[in-house]
Structures are given as structure tokens and as C-alpha cells.
Structure prediction request, 212 residues.
Amino acid sequence: MPFCRAIGVSRGQIRSHRRLAWLIVVILFPLIPQHLSAQGKLDEGQSGFEPHMTMLPGRNPRSADELKSFIDTLSATDAMFEVIVGQGRLITLREDIAAPDKPEPIVATGDPTVVDFEIIGARHIRVTGRRIGATDLSIVTGDRNNYTFEIQVVADLDILRARLRQTFPDASLKVAQIRDHVIIEGQARDSRQVAKIVEMVKAYLNCFIHSE
Prediction:
């Protein structure tokens, strides 16, 4: 019996296909052209509801020349790496992150609930995965060199794969992860076995939720 399941994990909940479909509807709804709903009514805000007070008019975007006078550069993601949730990885630098008579270095993460970091000495940064998800880590050295990394915090799928093979030896399963979703596809004996496989994966992911 071929099947495919996408199981999401977030803080405090397991999301199903029905939940995902509902979210897609909510996200796509504001994309309806404004002229379809702006027939003599007040302009709607980002929420899509008519304002109960007068909306302040917005200004036009600044020109490219005005932006150049204020913005020097906009960083891009240089590389990415994975961290298993609950574990850490050590970044070793080729130069000191701080230098005498130079500005203080900056190390920051976009979502501190996904990863934590600790500067260890002059050339080491330890990154720890706190929960399954994705975020970034930005490093600005004392010489003002900028580096940005995407970090994917993932579940230890090798343990899950081994448990699935042991429990369901007659099933052919492929397990992968996309951000905070674990994807399971393959063939199982029947619908009852599929349900048991999904329940096992949910229980495994719930371990990470309750450990946060």
C-alpha cells in the first residue's frame, strides 16, 4: 500500500494535513486583487478588515539614490549547516573574532528559540540546537567582515529510521525532513500499519516538544 505523510512539529502541537490546508487558505486569501473588494469602501489594512478609525496615508518608497545614501550593503546567506536538536556543533574560525583596538564583534541569531550559541575563546563558537526549525547566525568580526549562515535544526532521523525498520520489517519506508516537517513515504502492508507508523513518528517527535 503506497502512502506519503507529512508530519509537522512545533512548540506544543502536531500539525495535520487539515491544519496545513487551512493555513494555506489563510495565507492566500489576502492575495485577492484589491479592486475586487474596494467598491466604495474604506481601504483595508493588512488584516483585510475595514478599519474602525481613519487610516494614516502611507508615503511612497524611497528612491534608489536615497537608499544608497543610507544602506551600505545587505548581507546574503554564505552557507548552511545542520545541528541535531539537543546537540551542539563547534565552529572553528581561521582568525580571531575580536581584535585589539577594533570594534566589538557581533554574533546574533534570528530566532534564539531555535538555536543557542556561546563564544568560546577567540576562535570558537558553539551552536546548540534547541528545537526543530530553521534560523540564521550572523557574525560580524572586529574587522567588520560579515558572515551569515543558515542553520537547520533537525531530528536525529537515524534513530527513527532504525526503530521503524525494527518494528515494521516488511514495510519499505523513506524518512526525510523539510524544516519542521518529517516526511514519510513508501509502502506498508495495509492502512492499519500506516496508522501505526504515523503514531510512532508522532510519539518520537513529541519527545522533542516535551523536552523544550
About this structure: The two ends are 36 Å apart (CA to CA).
